[in-house]
Amino acid sequence: MRKFFGAGPAGWRTGALAAAGLASLGLAAFRGPLLDNPVQVIAQKLSAYYSLTQPEKVYLSLDRPAYGTGETIWFSAFVVDALRHQRDTLSKVLHVDLLSPERRVVVRRTLRVVNGRSYGDIELTDSLQAGTYLLRAYTSWMLNGNPNLVYQRRLQVWPASPDQTDQAGAPLSAAPRTTTAAKSAAPKLDVQFFPEGGTFVAGLPAVVGFKAQLATGRGVDISGQLLDGQGKAVGAPFSSQHAGMGRLSFVPAAGQAYRARVKLPDGSTADYPLPAAQASGYSLHVQDVGPDFVIEARYKGAAGAPAPGPVALVSEVRGFLVGLAPRPITPDGVPVSWKVAKNRYPNGIAHFTLFDAANVAQAERLAFVQNGPAGLRLTITPDRASYAPHQQVRLKVQAADAAGQPVATHLALSVAEAGAAALDPQAGTIVSNLLLTSDLAGYVEDPGYYFQSQSAATAQALDNLLLTQGWRRFVWKEVLSDTPPTLVYANEKNLTLSGTITGMGSRPLPGSQLTFIQTKPMRNLLTATTGPTGRFSFSGFPGQDTSVVTLQARRGAGGGSNVTIRPDMGPSVVGPPLPPLPLPATTPGVADYLRRSREQQVQERQLLPDGGVSRNIQLGNVAVTAKKLQVPADDSRRLYPGVVANTIVDFANMPAAQSGIPIFSLLQGRVAGLTISGTPPNQTISIRNQPTSLFLLDGMRVDASAINTLQSSDVEAVEVFKGTEAAIFGAGAGGGVIAVYTKRGDKNYHEKNTTATPGLITVKIPGFYQAREFYMPRYGAPVMNAPTSDPRRLTIYWSPEVATDASGTTDVYFFTADGSGNFQVTAEGLSLTGEPGRGTQQFYVAPK
């Protein structure tokens, strides 16, 4: 069992909470009045909570911040415990998903984790829809907590394939085109107000954070004036500071309804209400005063109510807890205050909570602790300032802690064209993720901004973020409860098939009888009974092969089979579609990047024997290929046996099709020009902006709704006909034809066949994904067929694992490619003690 006790910052007088086992907080570390019972109870409860839940975090380091269609995402995974950020030994399986702009899973990777490290790649098919994608990574154990805390990163995927078409079906040129924006309604702006501490109390001074953003999460700068119920101005005008966030201060009066009159970007104004003030309650104010935090609490009681008991203040940063002595508080709003030095905490989010005499959390506030520069110091030194194409480069990588002492580290290192590396300059890093965004629920815009400098303006912007962003690592009511949290998901040590048996109304069915039949790669027969939550779990599948499993369930001993088997599918996918890509002409560097990416892909295709005509594209565990599969021409379900489909998608051999993903969602990214809109089961398809008007189910014409109701595991293949190939189907096929063939293949297929057999399901469990090796030529090496030229690669070097030893140094060697210009080296990772760090350096490659 892991216990995290150890040296903290100098001068600490608090113990570190255990993150595993049943170890308790070292309460002897609290001195004097800190041993009062309320603080002891809170500390013990929080210690027990962390001991049971053992939270984890995941971070993915990428070779670049943005990509184009037809390119490859290379990633290196860090799986750490959420408290000390040291490499995790709990989970051995990592799941990585790529979600489309409509938030549908299009690629899923299952990876083996060794000592908290893993790596992989995702090839973006050249027919993939361009747009903003979501990359997420998680362990099964992480799903016991808030699913919003799994690793998520927005990725811009630009239309870079040579044959990529725009939404109108026209080829996209490398140069930006002049576009006239159509007149449309201005995007709706959401403005919210957040009282510091959680509530307004009439008569008590209040600090109010505000956030103005679009539905996409993008902040919009605003200005405005606070008004009372009579329309009179209250206080000074306010304006946002960064990403649509800012603050204002005032004293709310009883009985007043306040609103903010906001000036919108188009010059118009709109009124937004503030939350109503309470007649009585607590307020909490936290002020950053250099080396310390000063915390002030007030209380206003109801008329005639007795005086409250003493209040206690508890603060916590990733399991390091500081409890401050309970103090008496009066009901007349007179403040009580505490001061706490920042060096009592590690760097990260401090969670301040005010407890009343009954140990009920009355107010909460987040603040950021930054004791000097955050993270490791990573220095990268090339052996020269400039190089020729195909010349060997030697990089010296040095790692040191905040005190300048060398440290051993585990890093990921990439070298990419500087223009490609700078497409998203304020993207998240391992530092911003582990110290900030991994402990916040919801999307944080440009997280790298908050760590680019230690200026007062940046610190103020970060505090505004924490005034308005939700804390969701835990909820005090759950922590202080005598009932331990329910842990539904197991920590995977190997490949696992788990899920829930449900009955009517999706209610879990405890005590259900489950039969497990494995046919590949070995034969196996097991029986099991679901637990009190209707859950089941089978593990121990071989990691090198795909396993085929049939599950049969019925209600208890001798019960009926009218039950549903629901395998786990990862975190729920909720939220609006991701924001569209901006116009290349309005985004610095994108047009030039698209040109270079297309040049690279054209050169790559020319190196293939057939010029890339039969180029196969495979997206990992989910088999996605541009290869045209052969459907028997004499199949009786085919209306026109002589017509060959433009694209044929093989569902029978696609692992994702066995896991319940909607059929239309599985077609996304596998059929060029195909776009999905809507949400299951009400999805629609268009091909090159033309609504698909003809659907065939085993040769019969049906509505799209009939396809929407099918289980993807029942489908054998889908054929897509476009253009002249679709014309033979008649005038009604102008928008294309989608022909679906089921495994049962009955030409009399009807509605009752569109649902899976109750209590029976067949699942394919892919083995661990085998990551590809990044191609790195050795020019001039004494080997057969040594390369004399190389496509202009945007990423010329990638290593998912670079380690510095106890001296803090290591050397990295690679060759430059054909491309010239500036190249950026990026290294990021962790020390053995859990300190994150990131470093960059540039060098120049002269033209040939």
From TrEMBL:
InterPro entries: Plug_dom, Plug_dom_sf, TonB-dep_rcpt-like. It is found in: Cell outer membrane. It comes from the Bacteria. The keyword Iron-sulfur does not apply. One of its GO terms (cellular component) is cell outer membrane. Keywords: Cell outer membrane, Membrane, Receptor, Signal, Transmembrane, Transmembrane beta strand, Transport. Residues 665-737 form the TonB-dependent receptor plug domain. Belongs to the TonB-dependent receptor family. This is TonB-dependent receptor plug domain-containing protein. It comes from Hymenobacter polaris.
